[in-house]
């Protein structure tokens, strides 16, 4: 099977006489994020999102996992299987989300088109949050007082749901302001 020959004696399967063109190699952008590293870091919930630059999502993921573990440790009165399954699902989702966000970040960074960016999936920017800042300051002051004075945080065991109610009220007010 050397190929068919034409009248000139050359094989019809020969390569063309011109050289193949080299494929240009694009330099790697140092701002790229490693999807594998983002996934691995997400073994600690939220850390992969923070690595990619999605700080708010990272802290939300950490808070969801911490809250679920707290509920499980306090005894969920028969709902332990539900919370346990949720925790396992959310932990896996957290890792997949970090990988997906890293891939998306890199595609947007390279300027690859053909996809639309959802509104809640914007590239991270340097912005602050007044409510989050106030919460961090208050929690820090409480812990500082607990560690260095006779001030006790034992009352938090009974009153911690007030933080959830306050956060819910804040989200409702913020949504009403945006809608109106």
Protein described:
With 180 residues, this protein is mainly alpha-helical. It has 2 domains: 32-112, no CATH class; 128-180, no CATH class. It is 58% helix and 0% strand. The chain has 7 helices and no strands. Helix 1 runs antiparallel to helix 4 (80-109) and helix 3 runs antiparallel to helix 4. The protein is elongated and about 100 Å long.
Features:
180 residues; mainly alpha; 2 domains; 58% helix; elongated
Q: How many strands?
A: 0
Number of helices, counting only DSSP H or I runs of 4 residues or more: 7
Measured as a percent range, the helix fraction is: 55-70%
> How far is the first residue's CA from the last residue's CA?
78 Å
- Bulk shape: elongated
Helix and strand sequence: HHHHHHH
Contiguous low-pLDDT stretches (5 residues minimum) are none
* Count of all domains: 2
* Fraction in beta strands: under 5%
Structural class label: mainly alpha
In terms of quaternary structure, what is this?
A: single chain
Described by strand count, sense and barrel closure, the largest sheet is: none
The overall pLDDT, averaged over residues, is 78
Cα Rg: 27 Å
């Amino acid at each position: 099977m050397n190929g068919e020959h034409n009248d000139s004696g050359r094989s019809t399967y020969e390569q063309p006489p011109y050289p193949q063109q080299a494929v240009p190699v694009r330099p790697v952008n140092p701002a790229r994020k490693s999807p594998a590293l983002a996934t691995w870091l997400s073994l600690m919930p939220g850390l992969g999102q923070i690595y990619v630059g999605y700080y708010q999502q990272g802290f939300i993921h950490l808070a969801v996992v911490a809250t679920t573990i707290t509920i499980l440790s306090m005894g969920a009165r028969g709902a332990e299987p539900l919370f346990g399954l949720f925790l396992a699902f959310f932990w896996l989702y957290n890792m997949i989300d970090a990988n997906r966000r890293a891939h998306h970040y890199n595609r947007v960074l390279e300027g690859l088109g053909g996809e639309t960016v959802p509104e809640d999936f914007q590239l991270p920017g340097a912005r602050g949050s007044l409510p989050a800042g106030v919460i961090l300051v208050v929690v820090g002051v409480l812990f500082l007082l607990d560690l260095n004075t006779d001030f006790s945080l034992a009352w938090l065991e009974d009153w911690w749901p007030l933080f959830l109610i306050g956060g819910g009220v804040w989200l409702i007010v913020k949504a009403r302001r945006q809608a109106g």
